[in-house]
Amino acid sequence: MTALLIIIVAALLGITIWQISKIFKLSQPIESDDSQIATNKDNENQGKLFLVFIVFFYGLMLYSFWSLSKFYAPAASDHAEDYDQLFFISVALIMFVQVITQFMLHWFAFKYRGQKGRKAIFYADNDKLEFIWTIIPVITLSALIIYGLFSWSEIMNVEETDETLVVEIYAYQFAWRARYSGEDRTLGEANVRFIEGINQLGVSETDPYAKDDIITTVLHLPVDRPVLFKFRSQDVLHSAYFPFFRSQMNVVPGMTTQFGFTPTTTSKEIRNSDYMVDKVRNINEIRENNDNLGPDEKSYEFEYYLLCNKICGVSHYNMQMKIVVETEEEYQKWISEQQTFGELTAQN
Amino acid sequence: MSVAAQPLANDHAHEEGHHEPTFIEKYIFSTDHKMIAKQYLISGLIMGFIGIAMSMLMRLQLAWPNETFWIYEVLLGRFGEDGVMDPSIYLALSTIHGTIMIFYVLTAGLSGTFSNLLIPLQIGARDMASGFMNMLSFWLFFISCVVIVSSFFVEAGPASAGWTVYPPLSALPQAIGGSGLGMTLWLVAITIFVASSLLGSLNYIVTVLNLRTQGMTMTRLPLTIWAFFVTAIIGVVSFPVLLAAGLLLLMDRSFGTSFFLSDIYIQGEVLSYQGGSPVLYEHLFWFLGHPEVYIVLLPALGITSEIIATNSRKPIFGYRAMIASILAIAFLSTVVWGHHMFVSGMNPFLGSVFTFTTLLIAIPSAVKAFNYITTLWKGNLQLNPGMLFSIGLVSTFITGGLTGIILGDSTLDINVHDTYFVIAHFHLVMGISALYGLFAGIYHWFPKMFGRMMNKNLGYVHFWITAVGAYGIFFPMHFIGMAGLPRRYYKFTEFPYFDDLANTNILISVFAFITAGAQLFFVYNFISSIFYGKRAEQNPWKSNTLEWTTPVKHIHGNWPGEIPQVHRWSYDYSKLNKEETDYVIAGQDFVPQNVPLQEHEEEMDD
Ligand code: HEM
Ligand SMILES: [Cu+2]
Ligand SMILES: [Cu+2]
């Protein structure tokens, strides 16, 4: 595949150079004009090259949509559907404008290429036209803005109900921790000044609410239950990016930020979806042929993940946490097996 | 200032009473705006060479992350031992690449060169309002260049917190090596840079306001001048805020204040900072950062307006609408900074406000794009290299601008923020577009700067390979961004999920190498044309603006005799006489600004 891509690029380059050498030949000896100002011949050739170029450009756009848009991550949260719809509408709109305006631009560059004797028209202004292309963007953009703002306020204003699971996501160079609030459904107080020994998250040992908090390295979420994340950082800015859930929030030292979503697809379900089965098969083929990988690294199974998306230091590129979305029963079983903060500190 | 300079403006024998300038006065500490423009250009190009070279190293690393390349060891020394790039130097490369390209190449290199060259020449002035301040501005810029480049030789490496240098990462040497001396040098360099930029901008503003020749009303100014003028105003408004942010950061770093820092535990100890907020820094930074995009872009748009009109042999379509758009963009650009902060943790309501203002700014931008396209319509396009780059700019400006609609929408930004989608967007709309503007300007005004022509065929080769390459790099890049690929990652192989993107990354890198290679055509053309290019005629592009009424050989004071007076706007291309039998001046499809109105001719007044 790589080889193929390189060959295509090399071929394109070859064509370009060949075309160019033709221009060299065509433009130089015949007119032996060395004014270095575009001649009739130059205008002719360059105008045509604009046509060639627009073909290349449309080809590149087609190729990209055809074979790269499959990388768009599948959606697995309640608001992801809404997000994707807005995204596709916007993409369709901008590609519509893109295709038309690029065509006009390049077509005009070709069509009106300079020719001896051609007279340009003196056309300086037209209020009606100006009005039209002011008002059309105004209307379409207003529609997009309004649509966007509805989604935005829906996504950002999470209400906490009885059902909501509150989880703290704690970031530090270069890993994540999750803290669940436990039976009392209230997160105990925490501050970096309480960090000591195994109390790595700086949870207050005197706050009674903290006793039943549960700290884990993998994030487990029950499906279809709203989660409200509270983000806290111990050192620098990080960003908690959950691509499959169309969610992201910066993690800021000195303050708590929040974001909420409801996962709608369990890890098992997504792993068995056609899309993911294909994708993982393909990835495993690639890994099979990758000589840099040890034998135990060859096989990959899909898991949701959370990654850091704000530059945070040398290992920024490897700051991730596994996410498991599972049924309510599985989740309850898992959480009941975890050690509480009280138990953790009591060990010492 | 104007009082002092005006009499001089009408002074015939001005250049006589001077002594011969020495080499140092002429080439080094020159106060002549034309020489200062060349100094800016050449420093800017050298910085550009460095910046692009850095991006090549990054692309090499991203395409083949787990392979070794001796070039790393050669160029990066300790940070490339045994041909393995150190993760910290990747971040440093990206930081310094961004800083150099934005500030040094496209702010100073582009607007420094062309504002200096064109403002006096196109408005009909003997020089800038203050030649001395102008010289000072260049030398501060030069010192700043030296400081930022020298930061690469610091033990712990140069600044590595991204070009936005967000604290706490940029404030704490414990968090990343580059935040030690490297970051201090970065702050020093940028402080000097801001001083340089302010001196330059104030000079441009005063010059445009006070030194226009007789008849040169604001509504007869070429759009280049409007663009430089408004750019200078935006610079004066927003750069001081960056300076403030930088100074506060410096104080947090050096004097233990807590403007941006709070509750930090790092390397086993709690730091004493309390009560500051990194979000405050983000606000301050982007209050400059967003206008900066337009500081970079507007001069490029001004340059292309002029070049497209001249080479289309047509007036620019909608001159007044173009001015109105420039003003609207300038105003709106100061109220959209929050679109960089939708997920920063600021109040979501603010997000709504910034979405609104951001999509508003799309409107004047759209008007400009449509006006360019209409200017081409029914023209007689002279496809000189400068014109090709100008058309290229319109193309990349549209492509990059459209994806801005996605990023400016707070909802959609959630999932593409800080991914390669953003990298693709801003490289096209700002990086490549402004770079095209820079090239267009160089090809077009090279005869004015150096008295010689650049080779057009090399120019064509340069343009077409660059045009193919730039889209080849940045169009597919949107898609790996939509896949959720984060920016500022040293490699992606820690996530097996991204394995199937590797081929696309290789494709992008191959295009990047080709594009960078094509710049060598330009370098060769530029250097050889300075010495051996064909000698230029006075007005090679048959243009209307005043700079082409000056002699090819540079003289101090620009015009040997009196300064020409202006009688019309600069866009009377292909204008017909009253009977519509021929052009206004028979047989000549352009009417320079200094030509009085002909009998029965009406001035184009919108
Ligand atoms: C051939 C042309 C160019 C290539 C191949 C290129 C490549 C890159 C790469 C690989 C990155 C790092 C991405 C990451 O890891 O996050 C980057 C970042 C960046 N580039 Fe370029 N670039 C080019 C031209 C430009 C130009 C003309 C500008 C001018 C505006 C520019 C401005 C930036 C900025 C501001 C960043 C962000 C740095 C940061 O994340 O702190 N680049 N570029
Ligand atoms: Cu991080
Ligand atoms: Cu912005």
Write the layout of secondary structure elements.
The complex is a heterodimer of chains A (348) and B (606).
Chain A: H1 2-27, H2 40-68, H3 78-111, H4 127-156, E1 165-172, E2 175-180, E3 214-216, E4 219-222, E5 227-233, E6 238-242, E7 247-251, E8 257-261, H5 267-272, H6 274-288, E9 304-308, E10 320-326, H7 328-336, H8 341-346
Parallel strand pairs in A: 1-5, 4-10
Antiparallel strand pairs in A: 1-2, 2-3, 5-8, 6-7, 6-9, 9-10
Chain B: H1 2-9, H2 23-28, H3 33-63, H4 70-76, H5 87-123, H6 131-150, H7 181-210, H8 223-255, E1 265-266, E2 269-270, H9 278-312, H10 319-333, H11 348-376, H12 385-407, H13 410-416, H14 420-450, H15 456-482, H16 502-532
Antiparallel strand pairs in B: 1-2
Bound molecules: protoporphyrin IX containing FE and copper (II) ion (2 copies).
SSE class of chain A? alpha+beta
Report how far the terminal alpha carbons of chain B are from each other: 32 Å
CATH A-level architecture of chain B = Up-down Bundle
Q: What hetero molecules are in the model? A: protoporphyrin IX containing FE, copper (II) ion
Annotation field: number of helices of chain A: 8
